[in-house]
Input
Amino acid sequence: MPSLLPSVVAATAAIALLAGCGPQPITQPGAPATTAPADAHGVMPAGVPTDVVTGLVAPWSILRISDSLTLVSERDSGAIRELVGAGLEQIGTVPGVVHDAEGGLLGLAYLDDGSNHWVYAYETTQNDNRIIRMPFAEDHSLGEPEVVLAGLEKAANHNGGRIAFGPDGMLYATVGDATNPDSAQDPASLNGKILRMSPTGTVPPDNPVLPGATSATLAYSMGHRNPQGIAWDDDGQLWAAEFGQDTWDELNRIEPGGNYGWPVVEGRAGVDGFIDPWAQWATDDASPSGLTYIAGTFFMAGLGGERLWALYPDEATKAAGVVEWFAGEYGRIRDVTPGPDGTLWMLTNNTDGRGSPRDGDDRILQVRLVSPEEG
Output
């Protein structure tokens, strides 16, 4: 498919100010031909990241329930481990997990519904991708699982897998196209979609009706290839990070019922009916997975790109300035989340068969965040 994308432009002046205390801003191929305002705000990493814990094997998701309680999913084994001091303790294994290439135990989420505490998990089984939830006891043991949603198409690749509760109390899930690109444009399929559901898996009454559908389903947006990161900004707006195919990875601002173009378009195309990303990257530079939002800044984990991305959206230009950090220093980065006391945590993913493990991998790294004035 021929490219419909604009030409190369420089990163924003505001991001240049941020990067003056660290790495230089990149020139982003295909970036929107706009600039962020000079008063763009946010935070940036400062100093050298330090180890929080080492010795993880093919980790996929960090779940920080509180400053004193963190769980990590391990994709291949199906194990959920708890961070205890500088070590790890296994609190359970999710039943039914079948690891195949990118499939296995993927995202985790947590809910206190006032009566019970639940740990949610997105898993690949022998026959499908599904979301389950398990009672989480005071002794941090996991109870018998309940199925929240089953029957999502699975494949060796493009399983999606991120789950999180939004500010509206609903559970959101990213579901890949499972290597069937046409499913992303099929309103009858839940693959190639971002889903929104109640904590028990029912369709919320205010879910949108997708283009081409006759009624609302669990699907909240469509036209996605393999989204693996979701986060909300200060206004409660949902954003998602998405793997492209051969050309562009994306950061998208998710609108209810929106169509993000896959497989008809990839990246910024300016085609009616499809929503363009606010930022995009050559696939070798990103392969984005986890996404988090801290103090006006999105941080995005880069797998193939082996770096952390900082993103600064500007509503006036419908674009985001971008700065790269730690390129090649820690290998593949799978997930990011706010750490304690104004820090960022990064989860490496070098033991999953695609990386080059360092001594102690895989690990959670912590880095301090500061304003540009402090940097």
